[in-house]
Design brief:
The chain is α+β, with helices and mostly antiparallel strands. It is built from two helices and six strands; from the N terminus they run E-E-H-E-E-E-E-H. It is globular, with a radius of gyration of 13 Å. The N and C termini lie far apart (about 30 Å).
Length: about 110
């Protein structure tokens, strides 16, 4: 599948999973750069949820309501490398500022 772009929100099949990993068919935010997405056969993404989150930033980030069907939170700690075969239909895209915040949250979680 060509044309998976950084900052897009897309459906993804996250099964099979283990333990506390996000499971099922759910939206993900694509974090990896477009060239990586086009050439590697994989994408780096974080799971989204429509359930209000108790944890705050840097573990989660509430997104602005821009074209997504429900209020959504990025689960920043739920980062995955996924085959493009797991990636489905585009649902929308996040604001550039939101993408920057997600990357900032990842840096806080993993250090830099």
């Amino acid at each position: 599948m060509a044309g998976i772009l950084r900052g897009e929100v897309r459906w993804a099949d996250l099964n099979p999973t283990r333990g506390n990993e996000q499971a099922g068919q759910r939206p993900v935010l694509i974090l990896s750069h477009n060239v990586f997405n086009d050439r590697s056969g994989t994408v780096i993404a974080v799971a989204l949820t429509s359930q209000p989150q108790r944890a705050s930033f840097p573990l989660t980030l509430e997104l602005a309501q821009r074209g997504l069907p429900k209020p959504s939170w990025v689960k920043i700690s739920q980062i995955r490398t996924l085959s493009i075969e797991r990636i489905g239909k585009r649902l929308g895209a996040v604001l550039p500022e939101e993408l920057d915040q997600v990357i900032e949250g990842l840096n806080e979680i993993i250090g830099n």
